[in-house]
Amino acid sequence: MSISSPAKRAILYFDGGCRPNPGPLQTAVVCGEQAWIQADLGEGDNTDAEWLALLHAARLAAASGARDVLFLGDSALVIAQASGRQRARTPRLLRYVAQFHDTAREFDRVVLRHVRRSKNLAGIALARGTWP
């Protein structure tokens, strides 16, 4: 993973999807010029896929030793829930939020930002990657 020093900054794009919805889940994370695509993550809906993508991005950032992390995704719901601006109401979503916050404790600074789908490098990688 490409991380800038001295503050060990990481910028990660994340996206998830399933076809059909609900259906088989896939995720993509892009950092620098590298993309990580996961397939065969079970069945779920688009919200599950987006959350799994953010969790994957957070794990990658933590494993790289990043301290200042910017997560960019096109799911306004996931960004709002992960940042605490919108309450997650179901047990499934509450588990995702808790997992994200557990991982985010490893960072000094976390920023979550919504980007348009056309600007989400992970979404572009996912569309070009492993979809059948």
UniProtKB/TrEMBL annotation:
<dbReference type="InterPro" id="IPR012337">
    <property type="entry name" value="RNaseH-like_sf"/>
</dbReference>
<dbReference type="GO" id="GO:0003676">
    <property type="term" value="F:nucleic acid binding"/>
</dbReference>
<protein>
    <submittedName>
        <fullName>Ribonuclease HI</fullName>
        <ecNumber>3.1.26.4</ecNumber>
    </submittedName>
</protein>
<keyword id="KW-0378">Hydrolase</keyword>
<dbReference type="Pfam" id="PF13456">
    <property type="entry name" value="RVT_3"/>
</dbReference>
<dbReference type="GO" id="GO:0004523">
    <property type="term" value="F:RNA-DNA hybrid ribonuclease activity"/>
</dbReference>
<feature type="domain" description="RNase H type-1">
    <location>
        <begin position="42"/>
        <end position="128"/>
    </location>
</feature>
<dbReference type="InterPro" id="IPR002156">
    <property type="entry name" value="RNaseH_domain"/>
</dbReference>
<dbReference type="InterPro" id="IPR036397">
    <property type="entry name" value="RNaseH_sf"/>
</dbReference>
